[in-house]
# Entry
Amino acid sequence: MTDLIEFTADGVQRALCVVAHPDDIEYGLSAAVAGWTAAGIDISYFLLTSGEAGIDTMPPVESGPLREVEERASAAVVGVDEVVFAGHPDGAVVYGLDLRRDIAREIRRRRPDLVLTITHAERFDNGFPNQADHRAVGLATLDACADAGNRWIFPDLLDEGLEPWHVRYLGVSAAPAPTHFVDVGTTFEAAVAALEAHDAYLSALPQDYPAPRDLLGGMLGAAGQQVGREYALLLDLIDRG
# Structure
């Protein structure tokens, strides 16, 4: 057992998941999403790329549209209807003002109480190196939460009719030093089904790559053991007040 605090999303009415690629949300976050949408929380997805460079056997012009379809199907499994793709180049997302502006724009448009993303640390919580796109998007999301609430940063967003918005919580998954956990014991099966919806992507992975049930069972099961639950998602949760 650890001193991690359970996060139940009390008071959260809207949430926004911001990630780099199709399937990023399905490696854990979707388990929490399934529970929250069932509880009536309005959740949307914002993906900075279409994952077009993610299938080695398929050219990007074919892969990108297919992966968008799979992500929309995956989102539907856990009760998410709105999935937006920003069109940044897969594998070459650049941290900077353009990226921060795009995320701040979506935050102001959706007006979430909770924003979720993936760690921008150089390594995941399991020690494996983090991808460049994840690092850029994770850091830009951290900054965009502040940008979204400041009318003098990106004033062009005001011209688009998007007033500042204050994000209460920022939750970061796969972080090296989590602070909170979400009990996902009742939504594990939905999370497995959501990952399985990425059939074309998964089919192109090496044969020894773990099946969705095994992969999520190991990840969420290990997290659950830390907090005395069957399955759990760990988050570095920032309460921005």
